[in-house]
From TrEMBL:
Protein name: Nodulation ATP-binding protein I family protein
Residues forming coiled coils: none
Organism field: Lentilactobacillus parafarraginis F0439
Lineage of origin: Bacteria, Bacillati, Bacillota, Bacilli, Lactobacillales
Annotated ranges, domain ABC transporter: 10-237
Transmembrane annotation, as ranges: none
PROSITE patterns tied to this protein: ABC_TRANSPORTER_1, ABC_TRANSPORTER_2
Amino acid sequence: MEVLKMAITIQVSNLQQGYGKTIVLKNINLTVHNGEILGLIGPSGAGKTTLVSTIMGMLTPQKGTVTVMGQRMPNRKLLAKIGYMAQTDALYSTLTARENLNFFGSMQGIASDKLKTQIPYAANIVNLVPDLDKYVKDYSGGMKRRLSLAIALVSDPELLILDEPTVGIDPELRQQIWAELHNIADEGKTILLTTHVMEDAEQSDQLMMIRNGAAIAQGTPDQLVKDYQVKTVEEVFLKAGRMQDENNRND
Ligand SMILES: Nc1ncnc2c1ncn2[C@@H]1O[C@H](COP(=O)(O)OP(=O)(O)OP(=O)(O)O)[C@@H](O)[C@H]1O
Ligand SMILES: [Mg+2]
């Protein structure tokens, strides 16, 4: 098990990323091992989605490199091994939830007999079993988020990349989802998620805080709380932000 955990799933080295001439992320370095849950936090517009899109291979790095499971990204072949939940739901509203799960599952290369067990499994994690045969156009916003999460889970991927998976999810269900994310990580799978919710950050094995294009703090929640001599992850984040502002003023 320990050997499994040591393997590297995601390696980001000296990444600079942005859009056109705009630079959003400067010199990001990140290593995520098998079986680890990495939480990415930072203010709105900090570049969380930009970073996860780059790791997914939807954007090519401006500078630096991203490797996933030893392969340089972008790499289409790896997409079958990644379960991705985008920040904006991309669902077929004229299909039912079950049909969406079937469609995206087969796109991921899952055989139809495996899908027959995976669809109820994934739907159950997000409490959508009773609504599987409803049309997505009749879903609430939170139900759509939950369906997007189920789609990311349906292929039983080696790597889960979840962009704000807990938005629109009530506290009880959030706990249930976290319990399953820990189970998945215990199987040696890797999870990268972004969040604004401190409870999510506290559940992560490793945290990376990005602000003004830079990683301002990285480590386990416990270690960060200790290092910053504060009581909560939220206070770490606030203190690291103030320290970054101080440094920028002194530059
Ligand atoms: N397609 C794009 N073209 C140009 N600029 C973009 C594009 N997508 C994002 N940006 C810019 O890049 C910066 C980072 O955006 P990003 O979506 O990565 O932030 P975020 O941390 O995910 O924010 P949020 O918490 O609001 O989701 C922002 O300044 C945004 O305006
Ligand atoms: Mg985002």
